[in-house]
């Protein structure tokens, strides 16, 4: 019987990295190899299976139609291979070894400083690699195996995942006297001037949570969407350019310190987001993720 030659996991990693980065140099850096090593590995893969996967030009890396399909299959193979290690770790000590977690920008700076010290103390053998990114890329990275779990805010459609809610995070209205001169303990939606409302741009789920809580079409039409961070929007509010909405965790973390901004809870039926940990369904590390979710909730 003739020998059967199969692609190596390393070759599949090179292929997926090139697809993700669209550049041989950046893909090689991501794989911690030289560009010539990565290029040679891909050529060996193409020779092995007898097809061209990537069209190479001086300026563009273009995948063939078959190359696109094989790359997606390679992602699934790599994910399955990683889960072999996950199964072994899950059978050993809880929350040990490497874990990659994406955290959305409206959570990361306000929650992580509170929880990471306690997590390190309780589980020193856990090597938690963090990536801050918006909900869309975070969920995409979860499904293609780039990350193991995501810390995000619900409601958000993240695909076929399992989730565990950690706690509820109410929405606050942040303003100056120029916008609300006689604030009540809870700010009604009717008090919000849609022409003065500053929100994050598309891609940040906090914007969608805020608009859903207000349930006023004119706010969706008139509010100013900014491609920036909550910290930058707070500076704009502090300079009298408008008002905004903030999650309670940001207010508790001191985002309004050294400003003249006031903050009150938004008075609306669904003026809250649910902070949750999500992971791929049927993951062999589900026990670890549920334990991590409980630890995060307790630490916060």
From TrEMBL:
Domain of life, source organism: Bacteria
A GO CC annotation given for this chain: protein-DNA complex
Keywords: DNA-binding, Transcription, Transcription regulation
Stored PROSITE patterns: HTH_LYSR
Location of the HTH lysR-type domain: 7-64
Transmembrane segments: none
Transcription regulation as UniProt keyword: yes
GO molecular function: DNA binding; DNA-binding transcription factor activity
Recorded family membership: Belongs to the LysR transcriptional regulatory family.
Protein name: Transcriptional regulator
């Amino acid at each position: 019987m003739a020998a059967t030659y199969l692609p190596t996991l390393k070759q599949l990693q090179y292929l997926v990295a090139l697809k993700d980065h669209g550049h041989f140099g950046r893909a090689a850096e991501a794989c911690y190899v030289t560009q010539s090593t990565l290029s040679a590995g891909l050529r060996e893969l193409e020779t092995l299976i007898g097809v061209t996967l990537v069209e190479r030009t001086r300026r563009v890396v273009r995948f063939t139609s078959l190359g696109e399909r094989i790359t997606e299959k390679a992602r699934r193979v790599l994910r399955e291979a990683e889960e072999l290690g996950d199964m072994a770790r899950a059978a050993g000590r809880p929350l040990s070894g490497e874990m990659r977690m994406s955290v959305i920008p409206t959570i990361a700076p306000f929650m992580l400083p509170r929880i990471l010290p306690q997590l390190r103390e309780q589980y020193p053998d856990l090597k938690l690699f963090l990536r801050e990114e918006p909900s869309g890329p975070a969920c995409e990275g979860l499904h293609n195996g780039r990350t193991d779990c995501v810390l995000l805010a619900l409601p958000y459609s993240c695909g076929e995942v399992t989730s565990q809610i950690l706690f509820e995070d109410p929405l606050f209205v942040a303003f100056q006297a120029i916008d609300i001169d006689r604030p009540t303990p809870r700010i009604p939606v009717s008090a919000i001037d849609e022409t003065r409302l500053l929100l994050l741009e598309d891609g940040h789920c906090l914007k969608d949570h805020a608009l859903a809580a207000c349930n006023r079409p004119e706010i969706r039409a008139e509010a100013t969407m900014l491609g920036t961070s909550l910290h930058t929007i707070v500076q704009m509010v502090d300079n009298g350019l408008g008002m905004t909405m903030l999650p309670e965790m940001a207010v508790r973390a001191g985002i309004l310190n050294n400003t003249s901004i006031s903050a009150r809870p938004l008075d609306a039926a669904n003026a809250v987001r649910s902070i949750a940990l999500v992971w791929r369904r049927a993951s062999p590390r589900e026990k670890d993720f549920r334990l991590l979710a409980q630890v995060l909730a307790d630490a916060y």
